[in-house]
Amino acid sequence: MRHLNNSQQFKLPNYHSYITNRPQWLGHPAWGSTAILINRQIVQYQIKITTSLIENTSIEIQIGNNELRLSVVYKKPDTPLLTSDLSA
Question: How many whole angstroms separate alpha carbon 59 and alpha carbon 47?
């Protein structure tokens, strides 16, 4: 398994990648992140959703006259699920 660090990018032809890496701790290698790959033909932009315990990568896409928010999330099994994180 390969882990990307903040200075590396994942590239796939005709797709844009949005990646949110888990913050690195001193002396520990890169690990854990969330990502979204989306076709470049779709109108899109990344949004920042601040949460306490849920890691996420989020984007808005436009389909016709409608906007849709997509989020990929991860919560460690040993952490509580906070209502405030879900609301965000």
Answer: 5
- Residue 49 is classified by DSSP as -
Task: Calculate the average pLDDT of the chain.
Answer: 84
Task: Identify which of 34, 70, 28 has the alpha carbon closest to the alpha carbon of residue 54.
Answer: 34
d(CA 83, CA 18): 25
The rounded Cα 46 to chain-centroid distance in angstroms is 9
pLDDT of residue 3: 57
What whole-number distance in Å separates Cα of residue 58 and Cα of residue 87? 14
User: 82 burial class (0-12, 13-18, 19+ CB within 10 angstroms)?
Assistant: middle
